[in-house]
Design goal:
By secondary structure, the protein is of the alpha+beta class. It has one domain: 4-Layer Sandwich (Glutamine Phosphoribosylpyrophosphate, subunit 1, domain 1). Helix content is about 35%, strand content about 25%. The chain contains eight helices and twelve strands. The strands form two sheets. Strands 4-3-2-6-5-1-11-12 form an eight-stranded mixed sheet. The protein is globular and about 45 Å long. The two termini are about 20 Å apart. The N terminus is likely disordered. Bound molecules: glycine. Glycine binds next to strand 8.
Length: about 325
């Protein structure tokens, strides 16, 4: 993609996988229009001089608010039929970061992650501790019925029948119908040249209680450093944790002087070769260049590169 330094850039994703559930054009339009609206909201922030951090939090919150995505109100259910969400946010200016894991009754876990970053001396809070912290910060709790949609209940039933966990949008021949949900994320480059990243998820359908994925793990599902790039991942979390994929991509920029496209390619190659990783990443580098890569058939994502037109695709 373009290489000169300019303006602002923004990328968002809504999951990776076979996306076999998105077969008809109405469903495809529904996803793409959601992404386009969210990108334009992010443009409003960045175009007026807002920070990359503000933009990724706002875009991730909107993705969490849309039930078609596996985060916030659209989160998938674990083996007990409960929601357990993970989220993280990172500021490339000073490497400050905040994350939460295995939380429920929080409408926007990404906002709680930001509070962990700004209002606590910690990086990661989990489960009851994170929820107590939410209360301490005066964050309103969402009612249970905010989360449990008929679609997700059906999806869990199916996973139980097959005695398996289901991956983000992924599919095999036998489960291709069911894969509707995936992690969400945003990365941004603002007009001051700062980078930020945010990732949020309900995880994997029928996951064990207490399972935490890559999304709240700094360096795995999320990373941002003004000296290198901002990364958000989506897919099978265990693969990203084992390869520390977001930091690995950042290291390709730092140690090998790669741009976004080269580092993304190198990261995806490493993910595929070392662990047969399933999923994808969005990346903006220190010059505002945008790139994406995935090992799955598709990834729902979109971008605005250096103030240009919004592009959305699977
Ligand atoms: N990438 C989201 C998860 O594995 O939980």
């Amino acid at each position: 993609m373009m290489s000169e330094k300019a303006g602002y850039s923004l990328m968002i994703h809504g999951g990776a996988g076979a996306l076999d559930n998105i077969r008809d054009s109405d469903t495809a339009v529904r996803y793409l229009e959601s992404l386009r609206g969210i990108l334009e909201h992010g443009r409003d922030i960045l175009g007026l001089g807002g920070s990359a951090l503000e933009a990724v939090e706002a875009c991730a919150s909107l993705l969490e608010d849309d039930p078609v995505f596996n985060a916030g109100c659209g989160s998938v259910l674990n083996e007990d039929g409960k929601v357990e969400m993970d989220a993280a946010i990172m500021d490339g200016r000073d490497l400050s970061a905040g994350a939460v894991a295995a939380v429920d009754n929080i409408a926007n876990p990404i906002q709680l992650a930001r509070l962990v970053m700004t209002m606590s001396e910690h990086v990661l809070l989990i489960a009851e501790g994170a929820e107590r912290f939410a209360e301490h910060c005066g964050m309103e709790r969402a009612p249970e019925n905010y989360f449990y949609t008929p679609d997700r209940i059906e999806q869990l039933k199916l996973a139980r029948l097959k005695h398996k966990v289901m991956l983000d949008h992924d599919s095999t021949e036998e489960d291709s119908e069911d894969q509707k949900y995936g992690t969400i994320g945003a990365v941004a480059y603002d007009m001051q040249g700062n980078l930020a990243a945010a990732t949020s998820t309900g995880g994997i359908v029928n996951k064990r209680m207490g399972r935490v994925g890559d999304s709240p793990i700094i360096g795995a599902g999320v990373y941002a450093d003004n000296e290198t790039c901002a990364v958000s991942a989506t897919g099978y979390g265990e693969d990203f944790m084992r390869t520390v994929i977001a930091k690995t991509i950042s290291d390709f920029v730092y140690l090998k002087d790669m741009d976004a496209e080269e580092a993304t390619r190198a990261g995806i190659e490493y993910l595929r070769r070392r662990v047969k990783g399933r999923g994808g990443v969005i990346v903006i580098d220190r010059n505002g260049n945008c790139s994406s890569g995935f090992t799955t058939k598709k990834m729902i994502h979109g971008w605005i590169e250096k103030g240009g037109e919004a592009v959305v695709r699977f």
